[in-house]
User: What shape does this take?
Amino acid sequence: MNKLPNCPECNSEYTYEDGNLLVCPECAHEWSLIAEIENVETEKVVKDANGTALQDGDAVTVIKDLKVKGSSSNLKIGTKVKSIRLVEGDHDIDCKIDGFGAMKLKSEFVKKA
Assistant: This one.
């Protein structure tokens, strides 16, 4: 048996299906089952090299020397990056690095500081 999600209004665990809707018997809130499934599928968790979940505003440390396109210098291992922002795409971290400026990084090359 599939576990139905708790009510988003009152957090009751006694929700039930009524056609395409989910219904809470305690507060009478109704919401779409399709919207609930889409919300679960669209939430992407970005993880660092160690598997720790990252959030906007976190500080991370670079774990490998990285070549920077358009620059003669490399981004050195141990470089600390403050106030990251998570974005969609292959390079899922948007940040500013002292000495380099705005840059996008892959989460697999950083660890949470």
